[in-house]
Amino acid sequence: MSRFIRRNGWVFGLFVLFGLLLVFTRAIQPDYGSAAFISLTLAVLPFAFAAAAQTPVVIAGGIDLSIASMMALTSVTAATLMDGASEEFAILVVPMVLLLGVLLGAINGALIVITRVPDIVVTLAMLFVWEGAALLVLNAPGGGAADWLKALLVGTFAVPGVPTAITDWIPTALVLLVVCLAVVWIPVVRSRLGLSIYAIGSDSLAAFRSGVSVSRTRIAAYALGGLFAAMGGLVLTMSTGIGAPIPGPYLLASVAAVVLGGVTLGGGQGGLVGPIVAVFILRLVRSDLTFLSVDPNAATIVEGTIMVIVVMLGALVALRSRST
Amino acid sequence: MQKARHLGLATLATAAMAASSLVPALAADSYTIGISNTVQGNGWREEMICAMKAQALASGNVESLNIAHRNTDAAGQLEDIRNLIAAGVDAIVVNPANPEGINPAIKEATDAGIVVVAVDQAVTEPSAYVISNNQEQYAYLGAKWLFEQVGGEGDIIYMRGAAGASADTDRDTGFKKALAEYPDINIAQEVFTGWQQDQGKQQILDFIASGIPFDGIWTSGIDNVIVDALVESEVDLVPVVGADNAGFVGQLNDVEGLVGAAVTNPGSIGGAGVTLALRILGGETPSEQTVLVDPELWENATDAGKAQLAAAADPSLDPEWPVSISIPDWTTYTKEQIIACDGPGE
User: Fold this and answer.
1) Which residues pair with A200 in a beta bridge?
2) Bridging pattern class, strands B290-293 and B7-10
3) What is the pTM of this model?
């Protein structure tokens, strides 16, 4: 057990921080309860998928600046396809949009591998390409979403035999998030591909000499990111009922969550749970700033400062534990 | 500044509000009002926020404001509105990022007995009240005047707002309506300024450098930097249409040889939204769900128009602030109060 905590120290620390923040929130807003927690989870969803999209790419030693644009493109594609279509048709739309995400990510990765231009340059260019494509699909917010998809986010998850006092704290949106991430991430991490992604992130030359196909793994990491970005795009359409072609503030938020979540920007280290908990923390900070009526112009400064302090403290702890 | 303003009234929905949500808190007239806005750092929106704060202070009925004011999208606004619900506000005044995208959170708010008023742009959720500038009419008035001014034919630069924003879409509808009436008008260039001053200026400088002739410029409110660019490039001044921003109104009065028109688009609509919310909280429910404020056009091509512009000019305001800082019958604060931009308790 202690070994488990030591190995996952950062994530464990994030959970503790989130718990403390919940206590603090309860102290400043005594009504804060299960309904507010559902709202928090709904707010977390698109950010969580954006962070999940960034995670495999960063672990593989890259960075994807086009995540928010991919979310916008998949979101408007889903909203356009579902607009006026039957409820059953949406069952087809979901896999189509997910496949589109995989394709977009794979294109990003392939361009990096083929052109040998740095990740940051290629994905910066693709940020504009995918945004332009989103505007071509839908030049103004619009479209629609199937009712059953929208209903997936509503309410709490009833488990037979479990009292509602507990299930009130299990939003359907949270179950959806956990299932979507686990279904993709667990098989990947346990496979050869997962190992290869970590390998090329920590030392691509060593990975190459050990027989890992660096190019193919890099493309796969970006494709995986694209898949999560498409999930994020779908969630945007499900929560708002429309598609919006202008990308939301998800790019910088995804990088922030990845860093706060303990994924090293150089690659090779970290996991998916850390960034997701980090997203919960960052969204709860935003709620607290609203509850405290902090001057909105100062709120962004507070958000940024909290992040820097947490990451610095974490680095300090890591340094000390290494020297002893 | 008193000026007559026609209030076009339209009934959107006749859906009867649940009586419970309209029962005012009789005991207390000290309300908490939540505000949600999704564009930060834009002069118009800053004036709107200041009008909300000033009106809340001037009304004397607001104990505190809870302001969520940041750059975000419809999903982010869902989050902000839900946070305001959890914060237990009595009313929410919102400038919606999208007419449909924030409906779920608005519904949750009105179900919880919170009065929701959308300002500046409409929402389709029937339980919300809307007080808005008529954006379609805004574009139609200015475009029609411009096309008339260039003699019904010529090449026009069409400088829009933010691609995908609903106010931009509504304005495009109005612009296209005017365009259909003047078949000999040609759109030389269509760009999105994103309602950003620097971006708009760069775009017009690029176009001037291309050497392609143009006869007039329609802008979606990024106006004074366009005139600056024309003057700095020493090209012949062409008619320019903009909004009633203090800087542009000053230019229409002072810049030699500039012909143009300012279409009013008061940011003080935010203050009107607070007034509407307080009236509803006080049990005074409006008969219509939607109140539209129609724009006016002030031009400097005629003497009558020049007099109007001279009266409207206000160099004491920030150049990006609309000069229409109050709306008769809807706002009661003083000019000093809106410029101070202090809310209750500040």
Assistant:
1) none
2) antiparallel
3) 0.84
Q: Which helix (H) or strand (E) holds B329?
A: none
Pairwise CA distance, residues A196 & A5, whole Å: 25
Domain covering B7-133+266-295+323-340 in this structure, CATH number: 3.40.50.2300
Q: Is A286 on the interface with B (CB under 8 A)?
A: yes
In a domain, A279, yes or no: no
Does residue A7 fall inside a structural domain?
Answer: no
**Is the ipTM value over 0.90, yes or no?**
no
Identify the residue whose tokens are 């129609």: B294
Which amino acid is it at A10?
W
pLDDT digits (tens, 9 = 90+) for A267-319: 888 999 999 999 999 999 989 998 988 887 788 888 888 878 877 877 776 66
Q: Would you say residue A215 lies in a domain?
A: yes
Say yes or no: B83 contacts chain A, CB-CB below 8 A. yes
Looking at the 3D structure of chain A, how many domains does it have? 1
- In terms of CA atoms, which chain B residue is nearest residue A295? B67
Element (H, E) at B119: strand B115-119
pLDDT digits (tens, 9 = 90+) for B126-136: 999 999 888 99
Same fold, B7-133+266-295+323-340 and B135-263: yes
- The tens digit of pLDDT for each residue in B123-161 reads 889 999 999 888 999 999 999 999 999 999 999 999 999
Query: Exposure of B198 by Cβ count < 10 A (0-12 exposed, 13-18 middle, 19+ buried)?
Result: exposed
Query: Can you give the residue range of the structural domain that contains A202?
Result: 45-270
What does the domain layout of chain B look like in residue ranges?
7-133+266-295+323-340, 135-263
Other beta carbons within 10 angstroms of residue A206's beta carbon come to 11
Location of structure tokens 């991490």: A189
B208 touches chain A (CB under 8 A): no
Longest dimension (CA), chain A: 64
Class at the top of the CATH hierarchy for domain B135-263: alpha beta
